[in-house]
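Protocol step 4 of 6: structure prediction from sequence.
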Amino acid sequence: MYGPIAETIRTQRLVLEPPAPHHADEMAPVLDDRRLHRYIGGEPPTRDELRDRYARLAAGPAPFHQEYWLYWIVRRVRDGRAVGYVQATVRPAPGRYTVAPSASGSTVTPAPPATVASVAWVIGMPYQGFGFATEAARALLGWLRDRGVDEVVALIHPANRPSAAVAARLGLHPTAETADDETVWRLPADGAAGTDTPG
């Protein structure tokens, strides 16, 4: 579906790199801040937990698996320092149908298969406020669209204003839908990731 499950993505200031188990040593300190979990829950992962997670991600999905977990470590170009991560869970979209008018017999026709990606971004506390989340997530959205993903959504806690600001800069819009007390933000089907300046 995607050739490599994930591949390196480059932007002006960042490199998005697929994870490997050894990345746990540098990522554990980046993610070791309870403030990062204020809206997403859980606890900061240990090095061993990250190592196990990265090993599973690097192995890719089982054959014929219909859901893909894509993950990139976000790294600054100027010094190679890891500053956070972006991720996308890609799966088949729910079935859709078109219905012909009753004058034509009300024929129900399945729509072509589609895919939906649920995206997220996490930038370590010392690196927030420099536009890294927006720049990395915009690159991720472009990569997904180039590979035929039809829909992009993000689940954002209503009180998480910084993440909502990133989503808005990317061109996503909040909807009336919710999932686990989070608001579903959606990129318009004909939209592209926003192209305003990083923020």
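Step 5 (inspection) to follow. Confidence is low (pLDDT under 50) at residues 195-199.
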